[in-house]
Specification:
By secondary structure, this protein is an alpha/beta fold. It has helices spanning 7-19, 35-47, 75-84, 95-98, 117-120, 124-139, 151-163, 193-199, 201-214, 220-231; strands at 2-4, 24-29, 50-55, 89-91, 142-147, 168-173, 176-177, 237-246, 258-268, 271-282, 285-289, 292-293. It folds into two domains: 2-173, Rossmann fold, CATH 3.40.50; 186-298, Pantoate--beta-alanine Ligase, Chain: A,domain 2, CATH 3.30.1300.10. α3 (75-84) links the parallel β3 (50-55) and β4. The structure holds pantoate.
Length: 299
């Protein structure tokens, strides 16, 4: 694996790989890797011939009140994870390399960014789409791998790539959980042991909501009550939202049918955590996708 930091190096190395007939797989990240990141790298390794990981804590997607300064970082540890996952190139640009001048051009995806996390983080998705558009332009034609824990991000980035005819296939990969159900997140490192235990209420609430839908519940309000009711039993967890939306356009549904996304967000101590499941309802037939549990050695 080689580690590079310059945009021209990234372009040249990806062009060269494609010139040799290799398919490029790209995993954009902000580092501090956990099993969720590793699963994206493994998927890229399985589907592509040449794997590029970017590691850049993107200031543009943090509001001034958010955790940019304290965002966890471990470049040395992350490089080892990439080596072990068979990554070919680790791209770690400096902020000045990504944003050499004040930025006048941003990418905004309408609609999909308004609900869910967009309500409490109104500038977040413009920061994500702008940096991802830049990274896609640097890497060039590729498959790009994103985790479905950030289900709204996957929908937004996919729509951006379609609308702008970017030569990138956006691949959504399973959400990865700890053995006790907590969705893997770099921000879990902010939790003290009590908060860490309390945070599992998010996945427990999703399980309860899944059971209600499987038992025949089709009213989004009732599912909201199940989620909010259980989350309210944990005083350390402050609910931001618990919603049932259409899995395609992320608009609230009036009845649970077809494919829906059940998504929650909450504050636990210093961390803002999100979790979700996809539910496919076809008459009485209900299929729930809560993601996968990391093998112990991957935690
Ligand atoms: O999901 C993330 O880690 C970030 O939002 C991304 C996609 C790397 C853009 O900075």
């Amino acid at each position: 694996m080689i580690t590079i930091g310059r945009v021209h190096e990234l372009r040249a190395i990806c062009d060269d790989a494609r010139a040799q007939g290799k398919r490029v797989g790209f995993v954009p990240t902000m580092g501090y890797f956990h099993a969720g990141h590793r699963s994206l790298m493994h998927e890229a390794r399985a589907q592509a011939d040449f794997v590029v990981v970017s590691l850049f804590v993107n200031p543009l997607q943090f509001a001034p009140t958010e955790d940019l300064a304290g965002y966890p970082r471990d470049l040395a540890g992350d490089a080892v994870v990439c080596e072990e996952a068979g990554v070919d190139v680790l791209f770690v640009p400096a902020v000045e390399e990504m944003y050499p001048r004040p930025i006048c051009t941003t990418v905004h995806v309408d609609g999909l960014t308004e609900g869910l996390c967009g309500k409490s983080r109104p500038t977040h998705f413009d920061g994500v789409t702008t940096v991802v558009a830049k990274l896609f332009s640097m890497v060039g034609p590729c498959q790009a791998f994103f985790g479905r824990k950030d289900a709204q991000q996957v929908a937004v980035v996919r729509r951006m790539a379609q609308d702008l005819d970017l030569p990138v296939e956006v691949v959504g990969c399973p959400l990865v959980r700890e053995a006790d159900g907590l969705a893997m997140s770099s921000r879990n490192s902010y939790l003290d042991p009590d908060e860490r235990r309390a945070a599992t209420v998010l996945s427990r609430a999703l399980h309860e909501a899944a059971a209600a839908i499987t038992a025949g519940e089709r009213a989004p309000d009732a599912v909201h009550r199940v989620l909010a009711g259980l989350i309210a039993t944990e005083p350390k967890v402050e609910l931001d939202y618990a919603e049932v939306v259409d899995a395609g356009d992320l608009t609230p549904v009036t009845i649970i049918a077809g494919e829906v996304l059940v998504a929650v967000a909450a504050r636990v101590g210093k961390a803002r955590l999100i979790d979700n499941m996809t539910v496919s309802v076809n008459g009485a037939n209900v299929e729930v996708d809560l993601g996968v549990v990391a093998r112990e050695s991957e935690g």
